[in-house]
Amino acid sequence: MLRILVIACFIILQPYVWAVEPDFAAERRALMVEISALAKETRSETGQGVISAQVMEAMGRVPRHIFVPPEVRHHAYRNRPLPIGYSQTISQPFLVAYMTELLQVNKDSKVLEVGAGSGYQAAILGELVKEVYTIEIIKPLAERASETLKSNGYINVQVQVGDGYYGWKKHAPFDAIIVTAAASHVPPPLIQQLKRGGRMLIPLGSSFMPQHLVLVEKDMQDRVRTRELLPVQFVPLTGGH
Amino acid sequence: MLVSAGALAYVILLTRLFSIIQWHHFAYMMISLAMLGYGVSGTLLTLLRKRLLPNYGIVFALCAAASGISALGAFLIAQQLPFNPLEIFWDARQPFYLLLLYLLLAVPFLFSASCIGLTFARYGAASHRVYSFDLLGAAGGCLLALLLLFLLPPMAALRAVSLLGLAGAALAVWLFNLRPFFFLPLLAVIALIITMALPSSWTQLRMSPYKSLSQTLQVPGMHVVVERSSPLGLLTVVESSHTPFRHAPGLSLNAVQEPPRQLGIFTDGDGLSALTRFDGRLEPLAYLDQTTSALPYHLLRQPHVLVLGAGAGSGVLQALIHHVPQVEAVDIDARMVDLVRNHFANFSGDLYRRPEVTIHVAEARSFVEASNVRYDLIQVELMDTFSVSSSGLYGLSESYLYTVEGLQSYLRHLKPGGILALTRWITLPPRDLLKLAATSIAAQEREGVALPGKRLALIRGWQTGTLLIKNGEFTAGEIAEIRAFSAARSFDVEWLPGLAREESNHYNVLDQPYFYDGIQALTNTQKQDFIARYKFDIRPSSDDRPYFFHFFRWQTLPEILRLHARGGLSLLELGYPILLATLLQAMLASAVLILLPLWLGLRGESSIRAVPGRLATFSYFALVGFAFIFIEISFIQKFTLYLGHPLYAMAGVLCAILLFAGIGSRNAPLMLRWSREKGFSHAYILSAGIALMVLLNLLASTLLMQFGVGLPAIVRVVVVTTLIAPLAFLMGMPFPIGMARLDAAAPALLPWAWGVNACATVVGAVVAALLALHLGFTGVATLAILLYLSAASAFHGIVGNPKETGLLSA
Fold first, then answer.
1. Closest-approach residue (CA) in chain A for B537
2. Residues of A in contact with B25 (CB under 8 A)
3. How far apart are CA B543 and CA B342, in angstroms?
4. Residue B810 binned pLDDT confidence (cut-offs 50, 70, 90)
5. Residue B784, pLDDT score
6. Dist. CA B348–CA B279, nearest whole Å
7. Domain spans, chain B
8. Does any CB of chain A come closer than 8 Å to the CB of residue B280?
9. Spatial contact of B180 and B168, defined as CB atoms under 8 Å apart
10. Contact A226 B462 (CB under 8 A)
11. CB nearest A231 (choices: B490, B508, B566)
């Protein structure tokens, strides 16, 4: 009984008694291996590649641990969402990779993010595109994200404190927009600020309990369509329908 | 009685408090486990009986006082634990926090149960009287909790309940004339501290940071303007001085208009609905024509409208912008209506007092059942939020709104050519809307419609979908209008008479046209096969099995768990697995905390080991506990619709059962005498009587729904109470009769028997909910009959004096 209690206490107190900083680089490599394996599994089921080499490289370069608060840093390279304070979370790395892939950006793209949170997603995008503009309504979060991004050399990422509903008109139009802040509908100004042929991604649900993803596509005639996606292959019908 | 009242009131309050700070189903889980404190107390008392009984008075007073103090203390400490149920799939520490919560919350129950258990041990021969006070106290506690929740904010209600324990202790001190002298003043000081001197930082509710309200309040300029509490939920009105709410779920991607100023109204910190500013001008509200639920207004001219789930009034506003001459709206929560009608009358443009608007405070389904009016349009609004709906958290909540019988009733209240419109969130893979379609088809078939597909239409945006069911077949003109409406707003038409598969799934694209394929299958001969092979449970829900939100199927679970690391959690419907986990934990904890110590502790007691029939004793008290709670839960549900309000049903049926069972318990000796004179086995007579009464009540509940819905509320309560009374009277007897028999043979086992019975009641509540998903409430009630019959045969295995002299002489 005593032994069980000691183990239980250790698990509960683990984050507070962590004395030695773990080898984050090694952990990051392990996480990349895990994500690649998961992506392969998805490919074997769906027949489609889900995460490109460029995105994987970007994921491998960005140190996730600097974007999370110290008390959860030891979990930074686990494939799980983490709390970052102010009732917000940082998404599960596999989903971050998947969402980044869905945006189909290149090195000339200009991307808008609504809901910067920790700044991690912006950093990944910053590795891949020319300019990233990110808006965060909670001031301390925006300041923390801005500082982390700046001090780690992401000069192509700009953070603004404010309401993302109206987008960032000054830098519009955007090749891609990602809306991680909860929205009851797609703000019309964001659709207007999306380039022809551009993509907007809205993950639904909370980070701890992710729901499906809504991909909004604007064609060359300004017509807007959505695609509802799951990162996994799941056919609700079994058999011959 | 005070202690027992306090314990039950505490259960109800805890459910309420945890629903506010966490989520409803986790509240249920925590409390089910915490109630095991009852069982543990039975074990402790059995083991320590010899030491405790000689000091009955003082132990009772101490336990009563401790139950009061710990009721408040345990909750305050529980609030400080960093338990986050949403992280349970991700964080290995969370189960430990959960365990700590269980242990913490079990403490008050341990103390209150010890008071009662000890009383049984002391007055074994008069256990029928003790039990009757226990039941009467519980009945009072149930009413008291509801009353307190109407009168006080939840935390103040908790303080009041904790004072009950202290009052019980004070009464014991006075009755038993206990020493030392400072006992009473000490209790008074504690009571004063609880009432007045606790720092406010301790006694504030600490809501989970991941609830919508907590997240909203992080946004600069958001502040709470009004808070209203009732047993139905805590309503919080939030205003923003900087960032507008702009709540417009289901808005078309083509819409360009921003909603006007809004106030956010949260229920239990979630479930945002928006109170929209209305100054009499309709133009700022034009965005309401850009949602899927606006469709029926384009098919009907000058309709008489009924809006079910009026909430803060967006459905009514939507009717107004379409110039309807008359709109009636129904909402269950009087406080919500009061906020719109009175507190924010100016802001809402006196919406609920406008001449064309009539607002009713009632439960939607019951309102329709009791109404004689026929409408052109019945709009069933979105009453739950997307996050709740899509995460499966409602999986085990009963909903009579979307049952086959419910839809039949709405259809009967439509004029010829009238339309029933039901709007739901889009969940993927499709769940809600397909189940709703299946339910509506079943309802139409029962109404004698030969081709239900001809009367159905389904349109879908990226966020919401609206299903129309017409009282009559859709005309060519209407079909053209539906197509035009949808195309203009980039909504997909997923079902219409004559729609081709290629025409669906066009603007909001899924891998496959799942909705079209689903309804296609549901409207032809493949229906049963399709439902059976679908990976979610989309069988139509019924009044007997009212689990619309239950989509979980076992065969899908391994597939979902495998996809967990790849963002596949969205596929998981949490309600059912959580209930099952609760049951497993409860059973495991019962074994470890109750049975194991007893087995270890009693090994040394040769007097007890020598008692034969311990298995029969265990079976009897467990079976009686299970059967009692099965009947209680079934009939609360069975009469919910008839009584018209879940709260009335809960208060009315629960109180009637507890009250009359209490009276029955007191009169147990009468039954014994009577059966002895007649030479019958009273155990079998009792079981047969209960069986007969259960069947009568089941029949009556069906008949009442057909013939008795129009009666005034007070008459309905009297009718239900009259029906329940004889059943409950008999249900109150088996426990004290068993106790009396045990008292004569093995009094040491009395607290144990009480613990076993209490545990069975707790575990039984979870089992009843699980069984109801599969068997329906009629099935659960019928099962209770079998349990009572089995208990009767177990009774004869309990060792003891067959003449039950204890009870007869009492």
1. A236
2. none
3. 35
4. very low
5. 96
6. 7
7. 1-207, 212-272, 285-545, 582-599+616-810
8. no
9. no
10. yes
11. B566
Domain encompassing residue A37 = 21-229
User: What is the nearest CA distance from B72 to chain A, expressed in angstroms?
Assistant: 25
Distance CA B538, CA B556 (A): 13
Query: Chain A contact for B256, CB < 8 A?
Result: yes
pLDDT at B350 over 80: yes
Of the residues B253, B574, B578, the best mutation for testing chain A's interface (the one with the most A CB atoms within 10 Å of its CB) is B253
Mind listing the pLDDT tens digit for each residue in B81-129?
888 877 877 788 887 888 888 888 889 988 988 888 888 888 877 778 8
CA of B457, closest CA in chain A: separation in Å? 21
pLDDT band at B584 (very low <50, low <70, confident <90, very high): confident
Question: A117 CA to chain B: closest CA distance, Å?
Answer: 12
Predicted model pTM? 0.87
Count of domains for chain A: 1
**B250 lies within 8 A of chain A by CB:** yes
Q: CB distance from B97 to chain A under 8 Å?
A: yes
Task: State residue B804's pLDDT score.
Answer: 46
Rounded Cα gap, residues A140 and A119, in angstroms: 12
Nearest CA-CA partner of B346 in B262, B279, B246: B279
Which residue from B96, B559, B565 is facing A8, i.e. has the nearest CB? B96
| Interface predicted TM-score (ipTM) | 0.83
The three-point CA angle B688-B692-B694 to 5° equals 115
User: Which of the residues of A are catalytic?
Assistant: 91
CATH topology classification for B582-599+616-810:
Growth Hormone; Chain: A; (1.20.1250)
CB contact under 8 A, B93 and A14: yes
CATH number of B285-545: 3.40.50.150
My answer on whether omega of the bond before B82 falls inside 30° of 0, hence cis, is: no
pLDDT digits 0-9 by tens, A197-208: 999 998 877 667
Interface membership of B570 toward A (CB under 8 Å): yes
CATH number for the domain running over B1-207: 1.20.1250
Cβ neighbours of residue A58 closer than 8 Å, sequence gap 6 or more: A100, A124, A127, A128
CATH of residue A207's domain is 3.40.50.150
Q: Which DSSP letter does residue B289 get?
A: G
Nearest to A234 among B246, B462, B571 (CB): B571
Q: Which of A102-116, A194-208, B423-437 has the lowest mean pLDDT?
A: A194-208
The mean pLDDT of A63-74, rounded to a whole number, is: 93
For residue B26, pLDDT beyond 50? yes
Would you call B257 and A188 a contact, using CB atoms and an 8 Å cutoff? yes
- Please tell me the distance from the alpha carbon of residue B452 to that of residue B527, in angstroms, as a whole number: 13
Interchain proximity A205–B242, CB inside 8 Å: no
Tell how many helices (H) and how many strands (E) occur in chain A: 7, 9
In chain A, what residues touch B565 (CB-CB under 8 Å)? 34, 38, 79, 94
Q: Which residues pair with B240 in a beta bridge?
A: B222
Q: What is the mean pLDDT of chain B?
A: 85
Question: Residue B220: closest CA among chain A residues belongs to which residue?
Answer: A138
Domains B285-545 and B582-599+616-810 share a fold: no
Nearest partner of B742 among B806, B694, B646, judged by Cα: B806
Closest CA to B287 of B249, B243, B241: B249
- Closest partner residue to B570 among A11, A211, A239, by Cβ? A211
Of A8, A87, A94, the CB nearest to B209: A87
The reported pLDDT for the residue numbered B623 is 94
Secondary structure of B523-557 in HEC code, one letter for each residue: CCCCHHHHHHHECCCCCCCCCCCCCCCCCCCHHHH
* Continuous segment of H or E residues that includes residue B375: strand B375-380
Percentage of residues in chain A with pLDDT exceeding 90? 56
A128 CB-near residues (< 8 Å, 6+ apart):
A54, A55, A58, A100, A105, A106, A107, A109
